[in-house]
Structure formats: structure tokens, C-alpha cells
Amino acid sequence: MEGMFELIMTRGERAGRLGRRAVTAWLLSLAFCAGIIYIPAAYAAEADMATIEVRQAFTDSDPSSGADAAFAYRLTPKAASNPMPAGGGPGGYDFTVTGTDQSAVSIDFSGERPGIYAYEISHVTAARAYYAYDTQVYTLQVFLKNDRSTLVVISKSDGDKAAAAAFEHTRNAPPSAPPETPATPDPPAPADPAPAAPGPAFVPDTPTADPNASTLLDDQTGNVFTDLANGNVPLGGGGSSANEVWSLLSLVLVLLGFAIAAVVMVSIIRRKPEEDDAGKEGAGKDDAGKEGAGKDVAGKEGAINLTYRDLFGGAAVLLSLLTLLLWLIFDDLSNPMAWINDKTAIVAIPFVVQVALFTLRGKKRAPAHKARAEKEGAA
To answer: pTM, whole model, 2 decimals?
Structure first.
């Protein structure tokens, strides 16, 4: 019995130690998870602020030369009303980066409307001998969201996206003078040759801002339909070609126009055999006297109605092609998508006319069906 009691006590102590270890591990896990959840909140981006990172790499073939390693850059707004960093204006904001280093340019969007703001960053240092400059021009799009957070999208001149505006500059050491020729009694020593003239320095093009560019959006009203109609929903409505967006609503109108054209073509194809049968039946009954003559007049009247329907149907098909042509001219699918842009109303005009002709065609179809039903009842 004593052995049994000692065995039970030993197992109980082990279970107690395991239980304490499990509780300790659980508490440590909880503290670790709380730290993971808390850390991102401490580094959350400041509202209304957009930061643009500029990286510079400078290589000098003669590091001991002490040559100037400072390079100038300019942030240029594509619209004069775009907010700029402190010290900047509509003409741009100039700053410098020295050596291989990086700099951050911050823009405060406090009080600005949600929308898309476009800028350019380029190198503008004057030409210097033996220097080779990076001529890349970066396009920046700052998206100011409704929650006042910002998103910066940086693109190169060829359209490729970049994580930062990066520039690489180099300096080549000037050629050294050849060694002097030792003097001799006869002939006299030649004069030292003049150093070679430096090659032409490359002067980068200075980008110019587009004075007609505008990327601001109107204030939201809270009503979805009103916002879409006025074009003031970020990423949901354009209203200006400077936003460079294509309209999803215009594409929907094109697809609906082709659907209407398909219905018209199918109805025309299905109606032709019925017209041929009706014509043969009218010819067989033409000798039946006045009754046959009356039916022939009804047949002619029905033929006139069908001709109007064919004209309306053909016009509806042509208008669907016109809607597609206007959409292809005004909308570039390589741009971002929006619900509407400033050309949506133009694309909608032929679609509305197409719907009207399709409705008139349906009204012309009713008398023809009525005449056909009366003929079948009389027979």
C-alpha cells in the first residue's frame, strides 16, 4: 500500500509540473500575439501625409579626387493646384542628395479632396565635366483615399513600376598628362603636351508640367447615384480626361447594343420563312374573288409593316457598331478603370437612339401579328 501511495503522489507531482508548464507556455504565446498585433499599429502611416523615397548612387573612378557629389532634383506637379512640400510651389520643389544616399520628400494633403494627384521627379543638376547623369524621369501618382490614407505609385518613363525614384550618376577621372621627356643637350626637350579637352557633357532635358492637367475630384454627397453621375467617386468616376481612365459604363452600353443587334438579326432570320409561306398562300387564293382580293390587300399592308421593321432593325444594328467605334476611340484600356468618364455621354447617344428604334420596331410588329391572326381565323 505504501508503494502504491508513493507512486500516486509521484504521478500527481509530475502532472502538476506539466500543468504549470502548459499555463506558462500559453501566457507567453498570448503576450507574443499581443506584441504582433500592437507593433504594426505603432508604425501606422500618418494620415494626410504622402512620402516619396528618392535613392541616389554615385560612383567616382577616383574616390580621392574630392569631386562634388551633390546632385539636384526637382519635384514638378502636373497640376498647379496640387499640394507641394514646404518651400515648393506650382513651378516645382527643388532638393539635393549627396553621395550614395537616399532622401524622403513628404507632401501634406490636409484639407485636400480625395482623388489622384500626379507629379514628376527628374534630375536637374547643371552639366559638369567628366560627369554622366541619369536622365530617368519618374511619374508619381498619389491616391488620397476617403479615410485620408495615401498610396504612392511610382512609374518609370517606359511605364514599369518602381519601389522608389532611383538615380545612378558616375564621374570619370580626367586623363593624366604623359610623363615629361628628359632634357637632352641636342635637340632641346619638347614642350609638355596640353591635356586633352573634355568631351561634350550631356545636358538632360528639363521636364515641363502640363498646364491643362487636373486630377481633383468633387466632394462626395453620400448618394451613390449622385456621386457616379457627377464623377466624384475615387476610382469610381472620372469626369476629366486628365485622369486617364476608361469607362466601364461605356463598355456595358457597347455590350447591350450588340445584344439588341443580335435579337434584331435573329428575329429577321426567323421571319423570312414565314413571309415566303404567306406570299405563296396569298397567290393561291388570288382567284377567289373579292375575298381573295381583300386578303391580298391585307398581305400588302403587312409587307409594308415588315419593311419598316427591317429598316428600324438595320439602323439598330448600325448604331451598335457606331457605339463600339466611339468607345474604341475615346477609351484606352491601358489606363485605370472608372465607372464613367467625360466621354460616356457621347458613347451613350447612339445607344439611346438604338433603343428607341428597337422600341418602334416592336410597335410596328403588333399590326402585322394582328393581321396574320385574322387571316388564320378566317381560313
So the answer is: 0.39
- 3-state SS string over the chain? CHHHHHHHHHHHHHHHHHHHHHHHHHHHHHHHHHHHHHHHHHCCCCCCEEEEEEEEEEEECCHHHCCCCEEEEEEEECCCCCCCCCCCECCEEEEEEECCEEEEEEEECCCCCCEEEEEEEEECCCCCCCEECCCCCEEEEEEECCCCCEEEEEECCCCCEECCEEEEEEECCCCCCCCCCCCCCCCCCCCCCCCCCCCCCCCCCCCCCCCCCCCCCCCCCCCHHHHHHHCCCCCCCCCCHHHCCEEHHHHHHHHHHHHHHHHHHHHHHHHHHHHHHHHHHHHHCCCCCHHHHHHHHHHHHHHHHHHHHHHHHHHHHHHHHHHHHHHHHHCCCCCCEECCCCCHHHHHHHHHHHHHHHHHHHHHHHHHHHHHHHHHHHC
The yes-or-no verdict on residue 213 having pLDDT over 50 is no
Average the pLDDT over 276-281 and give the result.
56
